[in-house]
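Each field is listed here:
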Amino acid sequence: MSTYSIIVLGAGGVGKSSLTLRLVQGEFFDGYDPTIEDIYTKTLKVDEDYCSLQITDTAGAEQFTAVNEYYLKSARGFILAFSLTQAASVREVENLRTQIYRVKGHGATQIPMVLVGTKADLAPDREVSRETMQALADKWSIPYYETSAKRNWGVSNVFEDIVRQMRSKGMDTPTSGSGSKGRTRKSKSAGTLDSRCVLM
């Protein structure tokens, strides 16, 4: 089984953790708890083959530091998340995309990437049109998805797409065993690592 290293990026409060937890735990957690960094593992079946995802859920773009640049260097696939209810969060993913290319230092076609609009269930609060974001994704030559972690709309599609991109470019690491689903969290207050199983 192969392992794929993926990082989820975006402004604070756009729903990066909710998106990740919906995939990993199959649940939606309401409320906003600012993330420093969380690392999850999840075994996923994509096109008849099982793979292990190592997903890094990062701090908001406004809190991005040199520590996070380490994850940009080590990650192979990138999920750029913004909130459909916050037009300002689009600017953050544009800035993050620029940082990715600066850190990775090679052409756009070599970087597996997906643009994701979150909170699609909050239609009355929508500030960003599908047409605008699809045009931006087309400009960047990357897939675009609109999701709702609360309703479980389109979440698995995002991660399956990024795996397919990474597979096509040979960006996987062979692993042994059946894989796992877990979490390593870096505590915001203590700055220590707490490893525990979250899904069996």
